[in-house]
Amino acid sequence: MGGTFDRGDSECCEPAGSVPVEPTHIMKIVVTGSIAFDYLMSFPGRFTEHFLPEHLERVSLSFLVDSMDKRRGGCAPNIAYTLALLGERPLLMATAGEDFGEYREWLEAAGVDTSHVRQIAGKFTASFFCSTDQHNSQIASFYTGAMADAGELSFRTIGDCELAIISPNDPGAMLQYADECRTLGIPHIFDPGQQCARMSGDELREGVVGATAVVCNDYEFEILAQKTGLAERDILEHSQALIITRGAHGSTVITRAGQTDVSAVPPRRIVDPTGVGDAYRGGLMKGLALGLPYESAARFGSVAASFALEHLGGQSHAYTWTDCKVRYEATFDSLAVPVEGG
User: Fold this and answer.
1) Of residues 8 and 187, which shows the higher confidence score?
2) Using 50, 70 and 90 to split pLDDT, how confident is the model at 334?
3) pLDDT exceeds 80 at position 212
4) Tell me, what's the pLDDT at 16?
5) Which of 13, 121, 204, 220 would suit a FRET pair with 195, their CA atoms being 20 to 30 Å apart?
6) Domain containing 224: what range?
7) Average pLDDT of 317-339?
8) How much is the pLDDT for 341?
9) Which of 6, 278, 323, 333 is labelled catalytic?
10) Which residue has the higher pLDDT, 342 or 233?
11) SS3 letters for 219-282?
12) For residues 256 and 265, what is the distance between their CA atoms, to the nearest angstrom?
């Protein structure tokens, strides 16, 4: 089994001996997952209006979109970018193609350590093609590209790691990383995401069992539960927490101490949902790095998600720690972080 966080339970109260401060780089965090270029398109209608129930066995549709933008993306850089905005210096461990050079420079300038990103000769960086309709429903395809070589990397080359996330990536690499984290005693979050559809029940079970925490959205959790036969209580026999995100309805934090619903933070405007879940995970990890209980860490996730929702793509937004604190306290209670050694 992997390492454990000393985070307390999921009670509403903040830890004793805390003061509001601007946090510094306090934890070595490793982020794994896909690196991709996002091709984001906008459809001026509703996808569901064009599906005919009597013909679902032979769907053949093409949607004429109004716009297309190419953005830097991928689950791992999106998560790492949020952590960098919140004052961390996350280490990105992933594979990319020969076209990654400018992207690497941009991430380094944003505060992300890319020293463990390997560029694969003769391959393009993975690509995400996503169309969003007027109701924020999405239809997407993903080209793996250099992501298929993610298994060439290993946590054994990292050195000390205090917190890691295994986000959607090559399925074999995800299971390899989970096994390494368990063996090395690294506290880690297993975030199967879109790979719930690709991975078998046995593979998902292998990734989930022994993770310090498991994160997925409500739809993904239904797939995971159906494929693995694992209920919430089964996951909690091996993990400290199960966190299920629910879009505009916030998220649910489930620990052995009970269940708590965390509300979503209202954005000032809604532009694009791409990368919002990754921003949530980055905020969640920052809360855990600060020593907060899971519920309070999930509130950080909600705040980070709200900033991402206001812009196109997962790395087009920017904010300061003060901005984050103001928005946190406008929705929740006073933000206080534990005093080191307190």
Assistant:
1) 187
2) confident
3) yes
4) 30
5) 121
6) 27-46+64-331
7) 86
8) 40
9) 278
10) 233
11) HHHHHHHHHHCCCHHHHHCCCCEEEEECHHHCEEEEECCEEEEECCCCCCCCCCCCCHHHHHHH
12) 26
CATH number, position 123: 3.40.1190.20
What does the angle CA 69 – CA 41 – CA 221 come to, to the nearest 5 degrees? 115
58 occurs within a structural domain: no
278 is catalytic: yes
Query: Quick check: is 189 in a domain?
Result: yes
pTM of the model: 0.85
**Residue 57 within any structural domain of the chain:** no
CA pair distance 44, 54, nearest whole angstrom: 24
CA-to-CA dists, residue 109 to 84, 164, 281, 314, angstroms: 10, 22, 21, 16
| 189 close to 213: Cβ distance less than 8 angstroms | yes
**For residue range 263-310, what is the model confidence (pLDDT) as tens digits?**
999 999 998 788 899 999 999 999 999 999 999 999 999 999 999 999
- Say how many domains are in the chain: 1
* Average pLDDT over every residue of 18-25: 48
What is the distance between the alpha carbons of residues 330 and 307, in angstroms, rounded to a whole number? 14
In angstroms, rounded to a whole number, what is the distance separating the alpha carbons of residues 17 and 336? 9
pLDDT category at 332 given cuts 50, 70, 90 is very high
What is the structure's pLDDT at 17? 31
Average pLDDT value for the chain:
90
Whether the Cβ atoms of residue 162 and residue 29 lie closer than 8 Å to each other: yes
- The answer to whether 301 and 82 have CB atoms below 8 angstroms apart is no
**22 occurs within a structural domain:** no
Q: What are phi and psi of 129, to 5 degrees?
A: -110, 115
d(CA 143, CA 147): 9
Residue 221 to residue 218: CA distance in whole angstroms? 5
Reference 231, options 219, 240, 242, 215; nearest CA is 242
306/143 Cα distance (integer angstroms): 28
For 7, the 3-state DSSP assignment is coil
